[in-house]
Write a structure and sequence with these properties.
Strand order of the largest sheet: 7-6-8-12-15-16
Distance between the termini: 47 Å
Number of helices: 40
Strand content: 5-15%
Radius of gyration: 33 Å
Shape: elongated
Largest sheet: 6 strands, mixed
Oligomer: single chain
Structural class: alpha/beta
Length: 957
């Protein structure tokens, strides 16, 4: 992805002073006339005003049209200026018309015409011995040659212009050339020189109060940060530039479009295509209105990237070929190379390796011809990956080495891809030490970006999702070499990174540090979202819902959601003091990991699911700490299919689930069975599709459920679990209000009469849930409990009171939003407060500051969400971890309401006894196990659907 760059053509010569009123009025009429015939008539009627002063005024009008993006109108004005100046033998006016025409043609993408115009202007300025004009024309030629990727020519013209302008004391011109030198150096891979040139340019422009020029250079500096992977600084600068262009006295629509486009690029780089599309659509609209062909090509490239990330490769190819056609018309060699490289990437994703290789090679040729080492190195890295996929590791290794040798210092993406491919190639050749070295360097380049990511927790988690393959390769290599501790250490480095950052830092609501305007914007966005949520819910709950209205409400809601996400990302970028501190991950310590095991009868099982095989680590602490690893010959796709088939049978309460339960046990538990002798407490760290598997319902060879043998809890990683255990945030707050906060059976509007069987998204009453929380209030005692039901079980109760209780229990309907898991919610009562909607969403939970040692979401699918590679299940339970609750009981499917009430009562009876006897060996996971077994022994609830749905996530002690 290549962001827009801004050579400063539009800031050339402007008229020195306003012309007299009559001349100024005539210049406006000439500039806005519809034809040359109309202009000729105006000239004939105003002969005494036809002077060089009129030429200067008309040139200024052309500049004004150009700066507003009216390039065709500006071109007409400049052309007539040249004709008019020639008629009165005004050489300076002719040069001005040539200069302006060259600039307008540049923005229209007519680069050959622009070059000829500027060269003619330069020749004329030299005849006139106009030193200032010569310097400006040289700078303009440098900018055009830069656009055409003729970097050495661009450098030569720019340095010549710089010398002349410095001699003339033209500080404004010097600042322009410094900006363009920054662009040239950046594309030559000389990043330090580029940054220095930008900073010098900004310093001069700030002194001269040149707002437009300052914004353009800030944008280019942001591009440099983007190219080197510093997305946080890139986004901060892009947002500053966008705000500046919008607030300008004469808003620059072209600048606004480029800023919107570049912000979209940050979101694409961080793998958030949905949010990027919002910005791209706005940018594309402006480019279309301005008839900006180059801008359209840029938009098509980013639209293709978004389509690729969303799996729509056919659409991506259409956009890429549209961009390629435009860039061929404009004769942009570097832009053509970018199209070739992107087309190759799409073909590779589609599995057409021959086509991918063809386009990657074409891209290398283009980039090599223009001397852009950064882009050339990336295209070479892509060729290496295709060559490896075609089973030629020696050639792949050679090409990867060439990519690394070509890449300029600081160009991290090439380093990541090339080292990953080189590692895989060395491994295939049996060169394990060399492979490990390459994987380590690829991982280091990934982690170097951690401090530079922009946005909230979920956006940062998305960035790593396509990077975990490198970690998995390193883990597999170390297992094959028998280096198990190192293998587990790398597995841990790939898991729960965002959660670990949050848990190890102070969790402070960002609202406290926002400006009044930002707080007001946040409030307005949340009120708007609540309004659409409420309207959508009311329409869905009508006896005969209107599908068209529902679709319209959903579209409006999605727009607001993206607005909220963009706001949160922007706040994170411009308020770096609010960012979670992402310090270097401490080295994995096996002894410290072993110390987390509760007893000698406890074990950790951590899975790493790869494309072709799955690795299982078992960690135990008996007479000594013991780590073993097992290779399971099942890859990700096959495992996902088998888990999904088993889940469908459980969800449907089918009776033929036992064979699937046995086969899955044999596949993923039995390989470690010898290591689990004497174990009665398992903590599972699943990976990929295994997060959807109810391990507790698997059957061993004796046809006993796994839960009958051991208590089970789940965690994202050993390291995250350790941080949860150490966290002091669950200590009683100063305003401690009691042990239990419980909400159940909230009253909602338009409730249908029938009682639902499950606690899904339906708004129907749940009398079992009300009985559940009232009995819990009696169990923990009136003085230690606060119980809300019916209309009192409102969202604001949780937001205002949850941080003051040790246990939080919510018994209601739950809804899983598969497409946007942080908008999954539990349903609460009809709100009384403005800005609330009765939907307690995951994103809202993550902003709470909890002190609860346990949170129970007694509703449907509260343990599900999007499985983020390396991060675990992102949804309601993940949000509870972020908010500070180290243990949560959540559901893996749509649970039965009646059996859930029974299970919860049994669970809390055991948990209350555990609280009363802190020295008891009984764990929270053990309490949930006993409650589940009690339910299982009831004949009507013997099927796993009833008792296996709820699991303990987090600290199981």
């Amino acid at each position: 992805m290549i962001p827009f760059v801004l050579p400063l053509l539009l800031l050339w010569f402007q008229a020195d002073a306003p012309a007299p009123a009559r001349i100024q009025a005539l210049a406006v009429q000439l500039a806005t006339a519809k034809s040359d015939a109309e202009r000729d008539a105006l000239v004939a009627a105003n002969r005494p005003l036809i002077t060089p002063e009129l030429d200067r005024a008309l040139e200024a009008q052309g500049d004004s049209l150009k700066n507003r993006g009216s390039y065709s109108a500006a071109l007409s004005a400049y052309a007539y200026l040249k004709k008019l100046a020639e008629s009165i033998n005004d050489g300076s006016g002719v040069a001005g018309g040539l200069r302006g025409g060259g600039a307008a043609n540049f923005y229209l993408g007519n680069y050959d015409i622009a070059t000829r115009s500027i060269e003619q202007a330069l020749a004329l300025r030299r005849q006139l011995n106009d030193q200032a004009g010569i310097g400006q024309a040289l700078g303009a030629l440098g900018a055009i040659h830069f656009t055409l990727a003729n970097y050495q020519s661009a450098l030569q013209y720019s340095l010549e212009s710089m010398d002349l302008r410095s001699t003339l004391g033209d500080r404004h011109g010097v600042s322009e050339i410094l900006n363009n030198l920054g662009l040239i150096y950046a594309n030559l891979g000389e990043y330090d020189r580029a940054l220095d040139a930008y900073r010098q340019s900004i310093a001069i422009k700030t002194e001269l109060k040149d707002l437009d020029g300052t914004l353009s250079t800030y944008s280019n500096m942001a591009n440099l940060y983007f190219d080197t992977g510093n997305y946080r600084l890139a986004l901060e600068y892009y947002e500053h530039v966008l705000d500046g262009w919008r607030k300008s006295v004469e808003p620059d629509r072209d600048g606004i479009a480029k800023a919107l486009h570049n912000i979209a690029g940050v979101h694409l780089a961080q793998r958030n295509p949905e949010l990027a599309l919002d910005y791209l659509q706005k940018s594309l609209k402006i480019h279309q209105e301005l008839e900006d062909k180059a801008g359209l090509a840029e938009s098509y490239i980013y639209l293709a990237d978004a389509a690729d990330q969303m799996g729509n490769h056919a659409s991506a190819l259409r956009y890429e070929f549209q961009a390629l056609d435009i860039r061929k018309q404009l004769k942009l060699p570097a832009g053509i190379g970018i199209c070739y490289d992107d087309i190759g990437t799409t073909y590779q994703a589609m599995g057409d390796l021959a086509k991918a290789l063809e386009y990657y090679r074409a891209a290398v040729d283009q980039f090599h011809a223009v001397g852009n080492k950064a882009w050339e190195s990336m295209a070479l890295a892509h060729i290496a990956s295709v060559t490896l996929a075609r089973n030629d590791p020696r050639q792949a290794l050679s090409i990867a080495a060439q990519a690394l040798a070509t890449a300029p210092d600081g160009y991290g993406d090439t380093v990541r891809v090339a080292h990953h491919t080189a590692g895989q190639a060395e491994s295939a050749l049996g060169h394990f030490d060399e492979a490990a070295a390459h994987f380590r360097q690829s991982i280091d380049s990934i982690e170097a970006v951690r401090d530079a990511l922009a946005g909230g927790e979920e956006e940062r988690a998305r960035y790593f999702e396509d990077k975990v393959e490198t970690y998995a390769s390193m883990v597999g290599l170390q297992v094959d070499r028998g280096r198990l501790e190192s293998a587990l250490a790398f597995a841990e480095r790939a898991r729960g990174r965002v959660l670990l950052d949050i848990l190890s830092s102070a969790h402070q609501p960002v609202t406290k540090s926002l400006t009044p305007a930002e707080r007001d914007q946040e409030r307005r966005l949340n009120v708007e979202l609540a309004s659409w949520n409420s309207q959508l819910a009311r329409e869905r709950e009508r006896p005969r819902p209107d599908r068209l209205r529902i679709a319209a409400f959903e579209a409006s809601r999605e727009t607001v959601r993206h607005g909220i996400e963009a706001f949160q990302t922007r706040v994170d970028a411009i308020h770096p003091e609010l960012a979670v501190q992402r310090g270097r991950l401490p080295s994995f310590d096996l002894d410290k990991a072993g110390a987390l095991l509760a007893t000698p009868r406890s074990a950790f099982l951590e899975y790493v699911v790869g494309e072709k095989r799955t690795l299982l680590f078992v960690l135990r602490r008996q007479d000594r700490l013991r780590l073993t690893a097992h290779v399971i010959p099942i890859g990700e796709e096959a495992l996902r299919r088998r888990v999904a088939a088993f889940r469908r049978k459980i969800d449907a309460r089918a009776l033929d689930f036992r064979d699937d339960a046995r086969q899955l046990y044999d596949a993923i538990i039995a390989p470690a069975r010898a290591d689990l002798t004497g174990v009665d407490n398992l903590t599972l760290m699943p990976d990929a599709g295994l997060w959807d598997l109810p391990f507790q319902a698997l059957l061993d060879p004796s046809r006993r459920y796994l839960l009958e043998q051991v208590s089970i809890s789940y965690a994202p990683s050993i390291t995250v679990l350790g941080q949860m255990m150490q966290s002091a945030r669950n200590a009683a707050p100063a305003d401690y209000a009691g042990t239990l906060l419980a909400l159940g059976n909230p009253r909602m509007s338009n409730q249908p009469a029938p009682r639902p069987a499950t606690r899904g998204a339906s708004p129907a009453p749940l009398p079992e849930a009300e009985r559940e929380v009232r009995m819990l209030g009696q169990l923990y005692g009136p003085r230690e409990s606060r119980v809300y039901t019916g209309p009192e079980a409102r969202e604001t109760r949780i937001k205002q009171e949850a941080g003051r209780f040790r246990i939080i229990h919510i018994a209601t309907h739950g809804y899983l939003d598969n497409s946007s898991p942080m908008y999954s919610y539990v349903r609460l009562a009809e709100p009384r407060e403005a800005g609330e909607d009765g939907f307690l969403e995951a994103r809202e939970i993550s902003n709470l500051d909890l002190r609860a040692s346990l949170t129970v979401l007694s509703a449907c699918e509260t343990g599900r969400g999007r499985v983020g590679a390396g991060e675990g299940v992102i949804g309601l339970a993940w949000a509870l971890f972020v908010a500070g609750s180290p243990s949560s009981v959540v559901s893996q499917w749509k649970v039965d309401s009646a059996s859930t009430a029974n299970l919860m009562l049994e669970f809390h009876k055991g948990y209350r006894e555990k609280l009363r006897a802190p020295s008891s060996p009984l764990t929270t996971a053990g309490v949930l196990r006993q409650a589940s077994l009690t339910l299982m022994r009831d004949a009507q609830y013997a099927h796993p659907f009833y008792w296996a749905g709820f699991v303990l996530l987090g600290d199981g002690r």
